[in-house]
Design goal:
Largest sheet: none
Structural class: mainly alpha
Number of strands: 0
Helix content: 55-70%
Radius of gyration: 30 Å
Number of helices: 30
Number of domains: 3
Length: 679
């Protein structure tokens, strides 16, 4: 901006930082983060006791610290590599044992750095290579495959690096084909990159890759004939080696079909049919992306297909899913980060953190990486570089700036209240973090029981100590007891999740302020669990309460039952059972268009309050605490983002009735309603 008096840009300390300076600062911050992550991973790997780290090389070496060349590599079925890999791992394992893990860990770090540099080198513009390199290394350092390589001593990242070098970095078709062929000799399913090279005009590289694979395999056959026969005849391409083929570690179509209960010739036939279909579709997409100037995406899509069609997969193959963040999917700006976030979460977090631990969702949890690989290989609509939205996605609509609630306390300038639907992928991760913190916030039993006596004394002073009478009365009425116990167990999660789903699908503007207020209330509840551990009535010794939900607990033992391992038994103050139900009631009253629906919304917290007291799971004051954190959540949301935004409906040409219905669905009500929305 020009100086109005002198007609030139301002200088000195008040001058804004140039874009180039900000970019250099961000680049230095990324390199610093990459270095810190590398040091942390190295420290974790080297400070772990000897019997718990570098366990994979211990399966490759014999009693005297050398590779088992006198016997079979596959006697124990724990070695999953090819015979050619066995020839190469001899000196590596000896060096790892000779340098107490330092050589192996430093070598793994160098491999990760090379992977990041090779991946960043192949990114198409407008991404700059110098900025992408530290970001890629950071993502790789956080991924599960790299953490395994540093901790367990796995060498599975070597084939991935060889493929990236052969297809993206090395100049000359013969050198590139040699790298790809050696990668296939270490992992035969990587022969899928041969047709990719052939169809993209690199036929000499494809022929060289086939020749290198054949030569390496023949060399291993000559040196280890017994092991070669065992691998290629009895364990084709590694099938049946390592862990159980139907275990969750085998993230391939073969493992998924076995987990579904299929076996024998029908399973093999279906696996071959599905594998051929996935390979054909993925290679066609990969060739299209390569010709479009997105070579890294083409390689990643082919790698995802290799992960799916391999008889047995290793965790290092999950890197292919992570590399698909190079693609761009979604024409709208609000959708642009959906797939990158999904790929990063699948590659860096355990599946149990991403999928709820519900029996009906166990197939999804056990096959999460496979589903992500299949989606990247055959389904995700990655944009071509010629698409108008590739560089300039459609911007998300935003609400008008909200006025400050208090004149002397203005709203923060950074939140922009988006009117479109947000990304739901982080919601499950947030709840997983909440569950972990809630479990970690356990106080001592003596402290929790002392706090229970304090709450009971305060309730007696206020004439609120009705828990014992209510509990005993309900226990004497079996039908009411069963109903309230069922309500306590079933509706705590069902109602908030249903309400969030309806708001997300039908009223995204209201979803944002409702979700944010619930998040604030939950965070405040966690603070209460941490600062004031409280024993509920059912865990107070000698109090005479009957636990109608969990059954009798053995209070004579410090770990008084199996429930201790599942959840924090002393997270009673505040009661989020009641708090979440009150949140549901307030939101339904604020957005529901019919009076009877508002009445049902208010009935839910009333029934929940009755259930938590009648089942002896909470004190009355716990419900008061739950109401307090919910009120604070709404107040913080209003304070930070202002009143609720109103989405202006667009006129529809198909009649007044449809337009009126659209307006009723998108309008969020008056701006002076309860709550606000955090952009």
């Amino acid at each position: 901006m020009a100086d109005p008096e002198h007609g030139r840009r301002p200088t000195g300390a008040l001058a804004p930082a140039a874009p180039g300076a900000r970019l250099r600062a961000a680049r230095l911050a990324l390199w610093a983060a990459a270095a810190l992550l590398a040091l942390r991973q190295l420290a974790v790997a080297l400070t772990t006791p000897g019997g718990e780290r570098l366990t994979d090389p211990e399966t490759w070496i014999g009693p005297h610290g050398v590779l088992r060349v006198d016997g079979s590599l596959y006697d124990s079925a724990r070695f999953t590599g090819t015979p050619f890999a066995g020839l190469l791992l001899g000196p590596l394992t000896r060096s790892a044992q000779a340098a107490p893990g330092w050589g192996w860990a430093l070598g793994a770090l160098l491999l990760v750095a090379a992977l990041g540099l090779a991946a960043a080198r192949a990114l198409p513009p407008p991404v700059t290579r110098r900025t992408a390199q530290p970001a890629a290394i950071c993502l790789l350092m956080l991924s599960l495959p790299v953490r395994d390589a540093l901790w367990l001593g796995q060498a599975g990242t070597v084939p991935v690096l060889l493929v990236l070098l052969g297809c993206l970095t090395v100049r000359g078709q013969r050198a590139g084909g040699l790298c790809a062929g050696l990668a296939a000799a270490l992992q035969p399913v990587l022969l899928l990159f041969v047709p990719l090279l052939w169809c993209t005009g690199r036929r000499r590289a494809a022929l060289t890759a086939v020749g290198a694979f054949a030569a390496a395999t023949a060399l291993a056959w000559a040196a280890l004939p017994h092991d070669s026969a065992a691998y290629w005849a009895h364990h084709p391409a590694g099938a049946g080696l390592g862990g159980r083929a139907d275990g969750p570690g085998n993230q391939s179509l073969h493992g998924a079909l076995l987990r579904l209960g299929l076996s024998g010739p029908p399973e093999i036939a279906l696996f071959l049919l599905l594998g051929a279909a996935v390979t054909a579709v993925a290679l066609r997409r990969a060739v299209r992306y390569a010709r479009d100037g997105q070579p890294l995406l083409a390689v990643a899509v082919t790698g995802c297909a290799a992960l799916a069609v391999s008889p047995a997969t290793g965790r290092h193959q999950w890197l292919w899913v992570l590399l698909t963040v190079a693609g761009r999917a979604g024409e709208r700006a609000s959708d642009r980060y959906v797939w990158p976030v999904a790929a990063v979460l699948v590659s860096t977090l355990p599946a149990k953190m991403l999928v709820p631990d519900t029996p009906v969702l166990h197939p999804l949890r056990d096959d999460l990486v496979l589903l992500a690989a299949l989606a990247a290989a055959v389904a995700v609509p990655f944009l071509p570089r010629t698409a108008p939205s590739y560089r300039s996605p459609v911007p998300a609509p935003h609400a008008a700036p909200a006025p400050a609630r208090f004149r002397r306390l203005p709203l923060p300038p950074f939140p922009r209240r988006t009117l479109s639907r947000p990304n739901l992928l982080l919601l499950r991760v947030t709840y997983a973090v909440y569950s972990s913190v809630r479990q970690a916030a356990q106080g001592g039993r003596a402290t929790a029981e002392a706090h229970g006596h304090q709450i009971l004394a305060l309730e007696r002073a206020l004439s609120l100590d009705v828990e014992h009478w209510v509990n005993r009365t309900v226990v004497g009425l079996p039908r009411l007891d069963g109903f309230l116990s069922f309500y306590y167990e079933s509706f705590h999660f069902a109602v908030p999740l249903t309400l969030l789903a309806v708001l997300y699908a039908r009223r995204p503007v209201d979803y944002r302020w409702a979700r944010t207020s619930l998040g604030f209330a939950t965070v405040l509840g966690l603070a209460g669990f941490w600062l004031y551990p409280l024993a509920p009535p059912r865990l107070m010794p000698g109090s005479g309460f009957v636990d109608t939900v969990h059954g009798p607990q053995n209070l004579a033992r410090p770990g008084y039952g199996a429930m201790t391992a599942l959840t924090n038994q002393y997270a009673a103050m505040p009661s989020l059972h009641f708090g979440w139900s009150l949140w549901c009631g307030i939101v339904i009253v604020a957005v529901a268009p019919w009076w009877w629906l508002k009445a049902l919304g208010l009935l839910h917290p009333l029934l929940t309050a009755s259930a938590i007291v009648a089942t002896a799971n909470h004190w009355v004051l716990d419900a008061v605490g739950g109401a307090a954190v919910v009120g604070a959540g709404f107040a913080l949301t209003r304070l930070l983002s202002g009143p609720r935004a109103i989405a202006v409906p667009e006129p529809l040409p198909d009649g007044r009735r449809t337009a009126r219905r659209r307006q009723r669905r998108t309008t969020t009500g008056p701006t002076n309603a309860v709550g606000g929305r955090h952009g």
